[in-house]
Amino acid sequence: MSDPELKARLAERFREVNGDHPMTAADDAYVTAWFTDLEDLCRAAGRDTGRVRRLMLDGRLPLPAYLRSDGAEMVPSDLFGLADQAGGVDALEEWFLAHWDDQTTAKQEWGSYLSGQYVCLRSVTPRTIRYKDALVTAIEAAPQEPDAGTPAWNHRLHALIDELDALEPPFTAYDRLRFGGPVSRDRCIDAMRARYPRPA
Known about the structure:
There is one protein chain. 61% of the residues lie in helices and 4% in strands. The chain has 2 domains: 119 residues, no CATH class; 81 residues. Helix 9 packs antiparallel against helix 11. The chain has a 3-stranded antiparallel β-sheet with strand order 1-3-2. The chain is built from 11 helices and 3 strands; from the N terminus they run ααβααββααααααα. It starts with a helix and ends in a 5-residue tail after the last helix. The protein is mostly helical and 200 residues long.
């Protein structure tokens, strides 16, 4: 396929995964601030954009995180970082899966990684994926802890929330459309801070 055909096919695949939701001017501004145009990234890294698009379509690199209104494929600036750590694209899947003891979970996370939907992390690595999952689980379970409401509990809760806040970007309205509702920042950071204020 030619580069225009690859770009069109990648846009089609993106919408198959994320749905066909409009990007507003605010969404465009957000992704421009937080993500990088795939073509610009490939140019800066000396990589062939057509080959990278093929790797995305073949399920060997993640799909774009967003499609901007002008059609630009927006990706994390460290898109190639994990493949480089793994020793190349050919070694990436095995290297990624090895970070989980449970291979069923590992394969689910690999699928999520390839979807490009890990926009909930400033940097997407097996370590940050696992840490974010652990933080969300702990924050959601906190109200049921025996000492819930005590000063010590409140201190622990806000330490967890602050850790999650440091991992996650702000998100944009488009994310709440494609994920069908509140995102983890809404549920585990903003709502929990509002429900359980930090002591003065």
